[in-house]
Amino acid sequence: MESPEQVFNKIVKDYSERLYWHVRRMVGSHEDADDLLQDIFLKIWTALPSFRGEAQLYTWVWRIATNETLNWLRKEKVRALLRFSSADELAAQKVEADPYFNGTAAEREIAKAVARLPEKQRQVFIMRWWDELSYEQISAITGTSVGALKASYHIAQEKLKLNLQDSDVSK
């Protein structure tokens, strides 16, 4: 039987990169994602003794990461309100200013458009499109029905099309 440390080390090894990209797409910058990932792994370590295997390990880890990221985004929204700014616009600005972003100009525009989506639509879009999770997996992680997730994803796609219409990305 594996010790808690061995299980945790395996989780870190198996999920670090995918979780990093999941979180980074949600928050928009390397620094924020890196800091948040440390908090997520601390939360996983703390919660590990209570994991009873009722959910798949992947789903359990993803749920913790998603909830921690959403909590962080809510706090950012409050901070943005205190600065009289839009949280979605601040997220898009972080993508623009991120010195670690190494994609093309088109990928940057897409990332900024995704950052401008409302929280729930952004979450579903990222999990479905970039993380390539099934609606059933997303449902297990978020506790949202498959039908509602499909609707959110469709609305997110439509908003992205509109947001990208005037940029060079869609031409």
Could you explain how this protein is built, in words?
With 171 residues, this protein is an all-alpha fold. It has a single domain (4-170), classed as Rna Polymerase Sigma Factor, Chain: A, CATH 1.10.1740. Helices cover 76% and strands 0% of the residues. The chain contains eight helices and no strands. It has helices at residues 4-27, 30-47, 57-82, 87-97, 105-115, 119-130, 135-142, 146-165. α2 (30-47) crosses α3 and α4 (87-97) packs antiparallel against α5 (105-115). The mean pLDDT is 83.
Secondary structure layout:
Layout: H1 4-27, H2 30-47, H3 57-82, H4 87-97, H5 105-115, H6 119-130, H7 135-142, H8 146-165
Helix pairs in contact: 1-2, 1-3, 2-3, 3-7, 4-5, 5-8, 6-8
Q: What would you call the structural class? A: mainly alpha
Q: Tell me, what's the shape?
A: globular
Residue share in β-strands: under 5%
Oligomeric status: single chain
